[in-house]
C-alpha cells in the first residue's frame, strides 16, 4: 500500500517538473513579492545634569550605545555644552531597552542621568 502511495507522489512530482500537457505557452506565472516594512525609528536623547560625571557619561555611551571613545567624548561634550544630545537612532523596543539600561546603571552609581525617547 505504501509503495502505491509513493508511486503516485513520485509521479506527481515528475509531472510537475516536466512540461505539462495541461499548461500552455500562454499560462501566466505570478510571482509574489513580500515587502518588509522597516520599523519606525526613535531618537534616544541624553540630558546634562550637575551631578553625573563626564567620565560616567562617556562610559555609558561606549558600553550601552557602542560608540567608540572619540564619538562618546564628542557626544558627552555636546551634552555638557548644549544641555542634551541625540545619542542613538533605534527602533522603539531597542531604544526603550537602552534607556532602561542607562537608568539602572545611573541609579546604581547614584547619578540622576536622564535619557528619553522621541520619535525621529
TrEMBL record:
Key words of the record: Hydrolase, Protease
One example GO MF annotation: peptidase activity
Family matches, as InterPro entries: ClpS (IPR022935), ClpS_core (IPR003769), Ribosomal_bL12_C/ClpS-like (IPR014719)
Superkingdom: Bacteria
GO biological process: protein catabolic process; proteolysis
Domain spans labelled Adaptor protein ClpS core: 37-115
Cited function: Involved in the modulation of the specificity of the ClpAP-mediated ATP-dependent protein degradation.
PANTHER family: ATP-DEPENDENT CLP PROTEASE ADAPTER PROTEIN CLPS1, CHLOROPLASTIC
Protein family (similarity comment): Belongs to the ClpS family.
Assembly and binders: Binds to the N-terminal domain of the chaperone ClpA.
Name of the protein in question: ATP-dependent Clp protease adapter protein ClpS
Species this chain originates from: Moraxella catarrhalis
